[in-house]
Amino acid sequence: MKRYIQTIIEGIQTSDGAGVNLRRIIGSPELNMLDPFLLLDEFGSEDPNDYIAGFPPHPHRGFETITYMLNGKFRHKDSAGNEGFLSDGSVQWMTAGKGVIHSEMPEQTDGLIKGFQLWLNLPKEKKMISPKYNDINADQIPCINFDGGNVKIISGEFSGVTGPGEPHTGMLYFDIHLDAKSELILPIENGWNGFIYVYDGKINILDKEINKKYLAVLSQDGELILYTKEHEARFILVAGEPLNEPVARGGPFVMNTKGEILKAFSDYQEGKFA
Ligand code: CO
Q: In the chain, fewer beta carbons within 10 Å around the N or the C end?
């Protein structure tokens, strides 16, 4: 069996933080979520006005944020005194768990900023675990070269090599480059939800072509056969085991019930996140 494209979506232009312009692809009216993925934002601009305001201190509870910086520099700080630096090709894997207050601010006043933030849900029994940061430098991300391209493994396994990401449920995250007229066949666990987001060029799956700045939701079973025609392609492939649990959202908090969301807001207001 081969995976096919269920839908192709474009996402919406929006703004978040103190006024950072970004494209929201998952977590938008078009695609509210793709269990276990709650949100995918792409930020990308050479205009400092689009990013300079950054994301001043704000809370999270109940899930993980995975920030993959293709280009640019961001400084991360939190209320517990943790500090991290994201630069070209690095990843910050933050487990919000029972709660963090953090800021994500650009460490540059001009030049290109480009990357992604993905929200990965935590299963019910792990939503209130202790927060954790995993700062992954670019040189810690294995890059597997093959005839026709390469795969950077942020999380999961490819060609017998496992990436540095430490998800709490089954999940893979690859950054893939395919030359023109090339092919890549990937096994993905049956039953996992997955998507491809093209950030350069165009990629083909069966009889469909996905262009730059589009996301393709994949069917749940079988292997994935990707190929390029006359263009090269750069894209992320993300897939994960669905949690099949109720999802209650309230701004920066994602829990299982409305009551747990109200509790998150009151805990935050009472200073219990610090
Ligand atoms: Co945040």
A: N
